[in-house]
Amino acid sequence: MSTIIDTFIAPPCHEDIEILYQDEQLIIINKPSGLLSLSGKNPQNLDSVHYRLVQIYPECTLVHRLDFGTSGVMVAARNKAINAALCQQFSQRTVTKAYHALLCGHVENNEGVIDAPIAKDPALFPRMSICETHGKSARSYYHVIERFYDEQSDGNQLPLTRVKFIPETGRTHQLRIHSQLFGHPILGCDLYGGLLPIGIEPAPRLMLHASELNFVHPITGKPIHACSESPF
């Protein structure tokens, strides 16, 4: 078996975490791009969503994660019982999520589904792979919002598509690898083909934003609809 060696060092993130909602049981935040969800083993990767939150809420624990480059809505629990209740909602897939993304090229169909199993492969770390044999089921729905051209400084027109993703499952890197699979990687993705050819202006970040998170409050039983407008 291959040994996983993580050499990634996160650059400093100077953006603040935005608190969207909080009560005695949970906190909903807007995570900035370029911030780890959890601190890494390397002491240089101490800064993270969790690290920042526990400075204010010592008992706080994360219920789910977003990739380093992904921004948007996350929910954190303020005690173990709430964490367990929210984790159960995620595992039972009663939590619904929506993302906005900019994809390279013009997507042909206005909507569709990408259904392809995803597997870990230590030899490819940190990338995931599509694997029909050993992969876990993964399904992503997409809806095209607009197709447009982004004018570059040299006058070239870069074709892009703005889409809304609704993942049915929550596999690691799911939207990033599914976008690559159907030929339209997410702009700014350094792992799955979203970096553009030399001469084209690089994207300032991974153009993926968690825009909606819907779940049931474990104590009140009321539906929670958390939203964060896409910054791109």
Automatic annotation (TrEMBL):
Annotated EC? 5.4.99.-
Gene Ontology biological process terms from the UniProt entry: enzyme-directed rRNA pseudouridine synthesis
| Assigned keywords, A-Z | Isomerase
Q: Name the coiled-coil region(s).
A: none
A Pfam family this chain is assigned to = PseudoU_synth_2
The keyword Zinc-finger is assigned to this record: no
Superkingdom is Bacteria
This entry's Gene Ontology molecular function terms read: catalytic activity, acting on RNA; pseudouridine synthase activity; RNA binding
The Pseudouridine synthase RsuA/RluA-like domain is annotated at: 25-180
What is this protein called in UniProt?
A: Pseudouridine synthase, RluA family
